Amino acid sequence: MTFRSLMAVTFLAGALAMPAAAQDRPDMVIAVDNLWPTMDPVIGISTTGARVHSNVFDTLVRRNRWEDPDGTELVPWLAESWQQLSPLVWEFTLRDGVPFHDGHIMDAEDVAFSLSAERLWGEEPLAPRGTRYTRGFVRVEATGPLTVEVETSFPDPNLPFRMVTPIGFVLPQHYYEEVGTEAFGQMPMGTGPYRMTAFDPSVAVDAVAFDYYWAGEPPAATLRFEIVPEFSTRFAGLVAGEYDVVVSVPADQVDALEGTEGVTVMEKGIENYPMFAFNMLETEALPDNPLTDVNLRRAIVAGVDREAIAAAIWGEATFVPTPFNFPEYGDYYEADRERAVPFDPEQAAEYLAASDYDGEELIWHITRGFYPNYEIAAEFMVEQWAEIGINVRIELKDNFSLAYERPFHFLNMSMSSEFSGDPYRPLWMDWGPESSRFRASHRTWDMTEEFVRLGEAFEQAQEFEDRYQAYLDLVAEWERVTPGMYMWRNVVSYAINENLQWDPGNSAVTIFDHLYMTGYDE
Amino acid sequence: MTGYILSRVLRATLTMLVTVTLVFLFIRLSGDPAAALVPPDAPQEVIDQYARLMGLDQPLWQQYLGYVGGLLQGNFGFSIHTGIAVEDTFLGRLPFTLHLGITALALAVFIGIPIGALAAIRRGTALDRFVMGFSVFAFAMPNFLFGLVMILVAALAFSTFLGGENANVIWPALTLGLAAMGSFARFTRSSVLETINAPYMRAAEARGVPFGRRLVRHAAPNAAIPLVTLIGLSLGALVAGSVVTEQVFAWPGVGQLLVRSVATRDLAQVQFLVLVVAFTMVMANLIVDMLYLVIDPRIRAK
Fold first, then answer.
1. Torsion angle of alpha carbons B54, B60, B66, B69, nearest 10°?
2. How far apart are CA A409 and CA A212, in angstroms?
3. Between the CA atoms of A274, A278, A283 and A285, what dihedral angle is there, to the nearest 10 degrees?
4. What is the pLDDT of residue B41?
5. Are B49 and A128 an interchain contact pair (Cβ–Cβ within 8 Å)?
6. Mean pLDDT on A44-54
């Protein structure tokens, strides 16, 4: 009998004589609008899945949003420490004695499996949706019982930031291989504060406190994420005391809810920015595209008062960003940096006069209901553009694959600003040579030579000062070309029982461990 | 009579075949199902991998033949997300929807028909006007609105929650059955009025048959013919209405499963559910047609 299986047996014996856990912990019900149909944390990358994942799984590294809502600080979690052995190789040292929900002790093999080519980044991987986080991976190897090395094809000074994302969740290799990918997604197991007991993708997830959780006693006895599609019903359940947390309060009902007795409403800016891309290409479906002219693109951006529109729709809950300048970006963020093309009707008229645009209709493809308040804002914008002679028509589409069908002039999209240590993700990954903006069938632009040159310089810069300067240059080039326009920082909202002390930070991820949930007064 | 039965069965089979084909085509025409499974900015290779998993890389006719062939062998397919046979997931939900639907139908029948008959018998009185007023309200009220108002009033005024799977079925059933209740009341009233003024009723009265016996033995069977049609048709409305009602009350039935499956582009699951709904409707119509044989001797005689 090995040491590890001995640990497992000891653990199980302990589990049979379950400790007298605190009896006064609440049974929590979170009313959600949806659940992703699988709870594999990578196949299920989504807002509706992420609400559950961190309660069942732990990542190697975590962001501290319990003290800083934007979570710019990295916290060692299942990885106790990490170091860069060489420019291409990082080593993670794991915490010892962390049990999975069945008592098996997590080790380097589990981590190596979770990050493996077979699962994430090889040919036809088991969980293909994580490729955006595994760019450049060439080797993942358990080098000791508690050490794992990750090697990339290019130097990545910010690799540990990737272990915060869904690929950083550690899965139990033995259980995953025993049940298979699909079954794992239906009854997942991790090392997190709650152990899943039931899952029906169109009804609910049920979980109970895992009292051997390594990081501290889970503050709720049970968690239930229940699908309640209709907001009014979620709200009624909250008022009647049936639900403790409800998600996705419609923006126009926040005020009304704030006046309801026993209810606390929270609005949180999250790391996602709805915008649209200009289709700058001439294609078969759009042979004479007026948007190839930068003057028209700038006229469109300068001709719309985004601040006023965002304030009218969202109040104080959000703001209009200067491109790629996000508060969650730590040292890269500069609060008073100005936009290159601000709202200026006179300037817009000049840009317009300088273009060849003669009033032809520009089509804006919008995915119905996908981004909160997007359609309303779009209607405001269309009216403002009409005033200066730009003729835009909104076409609502039922899903993205329909929105991607040409012809279109504007395409709705959003940019995730998920912090990866620097603005690499939204700038170079989302607009660069690997991006769908450039590569997909619904591509909207050809990178300028200057953009490519600056992007490569950005990618190669290792020291902060160099990278920061390269970032500024790349942003300046993006703004010069103006391939799109940001709307605002996305907002998520929660209504909770006022007795519950819980704050998710600026995030759509809901975690009910002892750090985020600090009490529940009866 | 055999011709009558045969033509009805043939019609039902044809309807099913057309439904199978339409469902198959529409799901594939309303956007790429594989693209719906990945984030909006996913690379093409990932979309392609999902398309292969779902068999969407084969030509359409091949997919169609495979699909129909599978159906004929009783192989309805597996959910792309859960890997569970679609009929198993469906059967897990069916009890909830049956419970809801049967309760709603029972409410509609056992309230709607008696009050309609009562209104006919007490024609022109305040009771008659009240029943007719109620039936117009019940029929015109959109069921989601009625359900929402009920849920909100109960929560805000009585701190009681009427939704979720642990709630009493009576509330969603009332919401679901309301429209049918209204139309049953109206139809019963006019149908009963028609029959109680018929010559054979006067003849029965002249023979000294007591009022209650006249109503049950003579009026009821004749008034029942249009009602049977109506109940058959309202089954369809109940099935469609259950989708909305289950959403509003967070009732974990087939309707909610259908909405979720469409949203997540779970092809096999959607196809199966639409087929089941179509099958239910076709069978309901078929049964109504057969019931005519029982209750209407004229059809039997043809």
1. 140
2. 55
3. 70
4. 65
5. yes
6. 91
Q: Check residue A412 and give its pLDDT.
A: 95
**What residues in A contact B31, CB-CB < 8 Å?**
398-402
In chain B, % of residues over pLDDT 70: 98
Shortest Cα–Cα distance, A125 to chain B (Å): 9
Q: What is the 3-state secondary structure (H, E, C) of chain B?
A: CHHHHHHHHHHHHHHHHHHHHHHHHHHHHCCCCCHHHCCCCCCHHHHHHHHHHCCCCCCHHHHHHHHHHHHHCCCCCECCCCCCEHHHHHHHHHHHHHHHHHHHHHHHHHHHHHHHHHHHHCCCCHHHHHHHHHHHHHHHCCHHHHHHHHHHHHHHHHCCCCCCCCCCCHHHHHHHHHHHHHHHHHHHHHHHHHHHCCHHHHHHHHCCCCHHHHHHHHHHHHHHHHHHHHHHHHHHHHHHHHHHHHHHHCCCCHHHHHHHHHHCCCHHHHHHHHHHHHHHHHHHHHHHHHHHHHHCHHHHHC
Please state at what angle helix B267-295 crosses helix B86-107, rounded to 10 degrees. 40
From chain B, pick out residues whose CB is under 8 angstroms from the CB of A46: 39
In chain A, % of residues over pLDDT 70: 95
| Mean per-residue pLDDT of chain A | 90
Residue A355 has a pLDDT of: 95
Residues A79 and A159 sit within 8 Å (Cβ to Cβ): no
DSSP state of A82: E
Is B85 at the interface with chain A, CB within 8 A? no
Give the separation between CA B226 and CA A163, rounded to whole angstroms: 68
Partner A contacted by B168 (CB < 8 A): no
Contact between A313 and A403 (Cβ < 8 Å)? no
Query: What is the enclosing helix (H) or strand (E) of A12?
Result: helix A3-16
Residue B25 reports pLDDT greater than 70: yes
Q: Which two tokens stand for residue A63?
A: 């962001």
Residue A464's identity, in one-letter code, is: F
Q: Do A37 and B30 touch (CB under 8 A)?
A: no
Chains A–B, number of C-beta pairs less than 8 Å apart: 140
Measured between CB atoms, which of B43, B165, B252 is closest to A131?
B43
Cβ <8 Å between A203 and B256? yes
Residue tagged 């995953």 (tokens): A176
Residue pair A377/A486 in contact by the 8 Å Cβ criterion: no
Mean pLDDT of B87-116: 92
Residue B7: how many CB atoms within 10 A of its CB?
11
What b/e readout covers A213-248, taking b as 16+ CB neighbours within 10 angstroms?
bbbebbbbbbbbbbbbbbbbbbbbbbbbebbbbbbb
Higher pLDDT among residues A20 and A357, named by residue: A357
| pLDDT at A10 exceeding the cut of 60 | no
Asked if the Cβ–Cβ distance from A129 to B154 is below 8 Å, we say no
Local confidence band at B40 (pLDDT 50, 70, 90 cut-offs): low
Decide: helix, strand or coil at residue A264. Answer: strand
| Low-confidence winner among A197-206, A481-490, B221-230 (lowest mean pLDDT) | B221-230
At B171-196, the pLDDT tens digits run 999 999 998 999 999 999 998 888 88
Cβ separation B161–A236 shorter than 8 A? yes
Residue B106 has pLDDT above 90, yes or no: yes
- Cross-chain residue pair B81–A439, CB shorter than 8 Å: no
Nearest to A441 by CA among B44, B36, B28: B44
pLDDT band at residue A308 under the 50/70/90 scheme = very high
pLDDT band at A23 (very low <50, low <70, confident <90, very high): low
Do the Cβ atoms of A429 and A435 come closer than 8 Å?
yes
CA A410 to chain centre: 23
* B86-107 and B170-196 helices, crossing angle to 10°: 50
Q: How far is A209 from chain B (nearest CA, A)?
A: 22
Token pair, residue A209, equals 């406190």
